[in-house]
Design brief:
By secondary structure, this protein is α/β, with parallel strands linked by helices. It has one domain (5-326): Rossmann fold (3-Layer(aba) Sandwich). It contains 8 helices and 10 strands. It has helices at residues 27-31, 43-49, 58-89, 112-124, 144-149, 164-175, 244-260, 278-301; strands at 5-7, 22-26, 100-106, 132-136, 180-187, 192-202, 206-210, 236-241, 310-314, 320-326. The strands form 2 sheets. An 8-stranded mixed beta sheet has the order 1-2-10-9-8-3-7-4. The chain has a two-stranded antiparallel sheet with strand order 5-6. The longest helix has 32 residues, at 58-89. It is globular, with a radius of gyration of 20 Å.
Length: 328
């Protein structure tokens, strides 16, 4: 088990105990960093935030997310001070600071959506920044009709299935300090973007942007110039990580649970799976993982892990095992 020591990470490899730009802390060491702070979430609130198949509990909140929310709050306050100092240096009347933006990435079924919801609630309890918005990049997927037209419906979730221009424009508007910014809404029930429905974000202190590919580097244009990337505008980034075999198992387990719940809704895009036998459902879940989610993880998501400011590494039971933080 790693301890509070320096480690080095090469994408796709486990860290070694050499000098590196990261510090790695095991769960026990990390948990001690917020030992004097009470968790602001009740047991019922934690249960409501828990995703299907996730093992989130009050202990996980106390040991993992409480120290993380404290660290993020320190970062937000530090950026606020720097903002005021820079404006004073420029001899400008200090305008409101632009929102602190956190990017949160990870595989399908790894628990990144749960992590994002927990952090939103935890950070909003700190009095210095009560307005915390959460935006998922699912809303920026092309509609199914457009994906089908482009031959991308079976590559949903891959970088090319997103309207990256609209997503970049959204984050630029956020970091430009606009009072109100709109984002499209995605429905997991119908497996599509909801036409003419928007979520409005008004003067947030913090914005969490959660999605598979949010840490993708900027693309190189045909003329050789490098475009702006979404992660260029992040103040902090988090990658939720786990062994690929464990994530595959979690995906299959989640598929089986959804088969007994959400898939039984006749309006669900996946209603066709509700009548499958257990064994057939397992085979279908594995097929989807092996043909879509697994390749996307290996080709596009996992290679961005080393770009994150902080990595939450999970063990087989979904609990966070250790934390890797980039040094300042």
């Amino acid at each position: 088990m790693p301890t509070a020591q320096d480690t080095v990470e090469t994408p796709g490899e486990e860290p070694t105990r050499e000098s590196s730009p990261y510090v790695e802390l095991d769960r026990a060491t990390w948990a001690k960093l917020a030992s004097e702070t009470e968790s602001p979430l009740t047991k019922d609130e934690v249960q409501r935030l828990r995703g299907i198949g996730d093992s989130l509990d009050v202990r996980e909140i106390r040991d993992v997310y409480l120290p993380l929310s404290r660290l993020l709050s320190l970062r937000v306050n530090s950026v606020t001070r720097l903002h005021h100092e820079q404006e004073a240096f420029l001899h400008r009347v200090t305008p409101p600071r632009t929102p602190f933006v956190i990017g949160l990435a990870g595989s399908v079924a790894v628990g990144k959506s749960t992590a994002a919801r927990v952090l939103q609630q935890m950070l909003a309890r700190w009095p210095e920044h009560p307005n915390v918005a959460l935006v998922t990049t699912d809303g920026f997927l092309y509609p199914n009709a457009e994906l089908e037209k482009r031959g991308l419906l079976e590559r949903k979730g891959f970088p090319e299935s997103y309207d990256r221009r609209a997503l970049l424009r959204f984050i630029i508007d956020i970091k430009s300090g606009k009072d109100e910014v709109e984002a499209p809404v995605y429905s997991h029930l119908v497996y599509d973007v909801v036409p003419d429905e928007k979520v409005v974000i008004k003067s947030p202190d913090i914005v969490i942007v959660e999605g598979l590919n949010v840490l993708q580097p900027a693309r190189v244009r045909e003329d050789g110039r490098t475009a702006l990337g979404l992660s260029d505008f992040f103040d902090f980034s988090i990658f939720v990580d786990a062994n690929t075999n464990h994530i595959r198992e979690w995906y299959v387990d989640r598929f089986l649970k959804l088969r007994e719940t959400a898939f039984r809704d006749p309006n669900s895009y996946f209603a066709k799976y509700a009548a499958l036998s257990h064994d057939t459902a397992v085979d279908e879940a594995r097929r989807i993982w092996d043909s879509i989610n697994g390749p996307n993880l290996a080709q596009n998501v996992q290679p961005t892990r080393s770009r994150a400011t902080l990595v939450l590494r999970k063990s087989a039971d979904h609990s966070v095992q250790y934390v890797r933080l980039r040094k300042i």
